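REQUEST ID: PR-0412
SUBMITTED BY: lab tech R.K.
PRIORITY: routine
TASK: structure prediction, single protein chain
INPUT:
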Amino acid sequence: MDSNPIDETFFDATQIAIFKVDDDVRVRECNAAASHLLASAASRAFNERLGDALHCTHSSDTTKGCGSSPACLDCKIRSAISECFANGTVVRKRVEINLKNGVVNSWRKFIITVNPMHDSTKTFAVLILEDLHLSLLNEKLPVHINCNKPNYDDQYGRIIEDHLIKYRNVTF
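STATUS: complete
OUTPUT:
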């Protein structure tokens, strides 16, 4: 974040995606885990609305992007961020997001936490996206921390991976 190298080290140490967003849901900063979710390089995602940066399928419903589609009125992430700014409280919800990965759409499940954050001039929100697929994988299958790909030495691990890809729509 915008402080010192030690804070940045802690910020990037977690494998949970963390975004700093403004009241227009524009990405201002993110940690390393969050940058893996972004459709483009993290540096290009800054100042983009979150749905555009993540390639939410609804962000391309209109030419104006994230926040302008009729589907955006029901967006749980957008409503949680709005609630956080309006009430100054922490908001926690379970959400499903339909993201584009090239030509393939995939539903991703997250637990989100939105927390107000004040700096000297402005209020932001810290948005934490806890990927439920990764939580499931970490319980059932050893996963490399850096690339989130399965780490196994036996056929059993491959069977679990194939099942998750085929029936749970999990991508690695």
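NOTES: Strands lie at 17-21, 27-30, 91-101, 104-118, 123-131.
REVIEWED BY: pending
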